[in-house]
Predict the structure.
Amino acid sequence: MTLLVQKFGGTSVGSVERIEQVANRVIESQRAGHQIVVVVSAMSGETNRLLALAKQVDDEPTPRELDVLLSTGEQVTIALLCMAIHKRGFEARSYTGSQVQIVTDDAHTKARIQNIDVERIRTDLNHNRIVVVAGFQGVDGNGNITTLGRGGSDTTAVALAAALQAAECQIYTDVDGVYTTDPRVEPHARRLSHITFEEMLEMASQGSKVLQFRAVEFAGKYDVNLRVLSSFEEGPGTLITYDEEDSMEQPLVSGIAFNRDEAKITLVGIPDTPGMAYKVLGPVGESNIEVDMIIQNVGEDGTTDFTFTVHRNDFKRVLEMMQTLGKELGAQQVTGDDSIVKIALVGVGMRSHAGIASTMFEALAREGINIRMISTSEIKIAIVIDEKYLELAVRTLHAAFGLEQQD
Ligand code: ASP
Ligand code: MG
């Protein structure tokens, strides 16, 4: 008998009807001979609604109380799902994060899981019960409710799968797998039957929203078989694996991720002296603002240009910071642009193939798309371009690398 952890996201439990469908589905899995642990998100929109309520009371609510509030969303769905399972004559038990003892650190609103006590779950499974656990939440060492950050139910599911040594962690969502790129931008995008952890991590960090980055990281670390499937239709979904395919030749590029949330800031003509990068980026880091791409030009006449990107939400703050700092450092000019996007080609096949960058740049040049920044790693080439070219660039690259035809 294999143990499966099945996670259903917000849209999959977005109404009572959908919760009933989830009940049917998990019962079906149990009847097929599996032990089933279910993790659910809050009903779609609920976490945002709770967040908005909190903001009505206080613009910066206390993190501890925010967690008490936000964790209620998932508590609603675990109870409703168990009721739906009971009505169908099957046994199920719901648990909040603190009840099953998903122990986290005390970093409210972005807590990390440290330990899970699976004894209670095991007992239920041995009694043929379906176990339903609230995603996104845990409890710290002092009994305070914590939450794991937005999208954190994925992480709950993966962590449970690791702790229970489940055969598979199945993430049911509103798409039927991981695609070569977002089908809303490129209708020819194709579902991948499998993708490596490394690629999935890169896709998630470059802007793909299918899986929470931390969940993929966790699954990779603990060797959890992760699968993304549709909760609305049957199908094999996408398996995230360790194996780089050996039987077939690995495609050069597996997917194209993009991120509309980028903004860039440039300090023009700052002194080309040791410690300058630190002087520029130190204060940004100290303000807990994440920097993504960084580019420094070759110095000329003792000065250089320094460009970096941040999340669009942080743009204004960082631009103001840099305008002040730029004066102190003697920059000739400080400029910023928040109508840019980042597009990244991802593929482990890049390791063993040269010429991918030139194919990419040639394809973009043919469409007259100007590249503003470039950064590469072993399995990724990322570029920054003007926002207005996003769709065109994604489609152009999708075609240039033949992504609609592989597998
Ligand atoms: N309900 C939480 C959120 O919206 C957690 C999740 O859905 O994974 O972020
Ligand atoms: Mg979610």
